[in-house]
Amino acid sequence: MQPMVAALTPDDMRALGLYFSRQRSALHAPTDAGLTERGREIYARGGVATEVAACIGCHGGRGHGSEKLPRLAGQVASYLVAQIRSFGARERTNDNAVMHTIAAKMTPAEARAVAEYLSGLD
Fold it and tell me: How do residues 13-54 score in pLDDT, each as one tens digit?
């Protein structure tokens, strides 16, 4: 991404931020109600058996993130799973180390469940 934005001015970046902040995320209908419910539980309460922290504490009740943390709601589930895997493997190095620790503890099933839940949020 860095090479693509290298020539952007601060005004360009503000304009892009404003544009994208006004976009609606596409809803992705859950494909497995049980998986979605398990994802909602992990998102809200964490993974008890694996000691995975609840996502809600940082990413908010509806997955909208904050000024410093990304919106997760409405993202494509396969993208979210890939990012969780990248965090867990420490392949993403431009982010908060807290996510490395959390993602490293998540099982593939937990990652799929949380991703399925988040993809259906608006």
Answer: 999 989 988 887 677 888 899 999 999 999 999 988 888 999
Report the CATH fold assignment for 34-119. Cytochrome Bc1 Complex; Chain D, domain 2 (1.10.760)
Between the alpha carbon of residue 105 and those of residues 23, 87, 110, 114, the distances in Å are 33, 10, 10, 13
Whether the pTM exceeds 0.90: the reply is no
For 54-121, the DSSP string reads: PTHHHH-TTS---SSS---TT--HHHHHHHHHHHHTT---SS-HHHHHHHHH--HHHHHHHHHHHHT-
